[in-house]
Amino acid sequence: METVFCEDIPLDRNSEQYVLNIGKALELKCAQPLMDQECGECEVCLLAQSIIATRNWFWRCSDQVKKRFVIGIVQRFHSVDLLKHMIRLLRPLLAKDYTYARSRTAPGLNTDTARLSSNRALSSSEIEVNIRYTWNWFVSSNYWTKSNFLLGLLQMCNMHLLFTAGNHAKTLLAAEVKALSHRGDVSYDSHTSNFRALF
Questions:
Q1: 22 three-class SS
Q2: Structure pTM?
Q3: Residue 111 belongs to a domain
Q4: How far apart are CA 165 and CA 163, in angstroms?
């Protein structure tokens, strides 16, 4: 009988099973043995570089640009697992305390945060290049990288943007579940009000 190694099992890069497969662990480890150096080519290094690059312009741009970028990231998940993961992360947003805090006027001076249309000396063309580059990189990344980039991005978002992103993820997941149910891949359990996979 032929031995099959776990790293030889084909997995969808946009699924949770890809990350949980121990055979893929080496792909998520930096090739440099020293802690103070980076190889710049592995998933870990590319993720760190992308988060730093995004942070450099994200905090300075307007609310409109931030919303467009975050919604664009959510639309590029291409993974039901990642949509579920995001909704689980943002579930506390539905609590009444969070709703109260989100609806209050933000304290502080007007100059403390970027206004709705202010990009704080960033050129529109530069922002557009950064957004497009990050979106393209995100689409081609695997589940682990997408999941960790998402965590880094959510830390940069304010309450309103988190709420908007969570609602958008719920809408996309409902559309995915509806499409799968029409194909017969999932069924609705009326007792638990949950969808179950049929495969």
A1: helix
A2: 0.72
A3: no
A4: 6
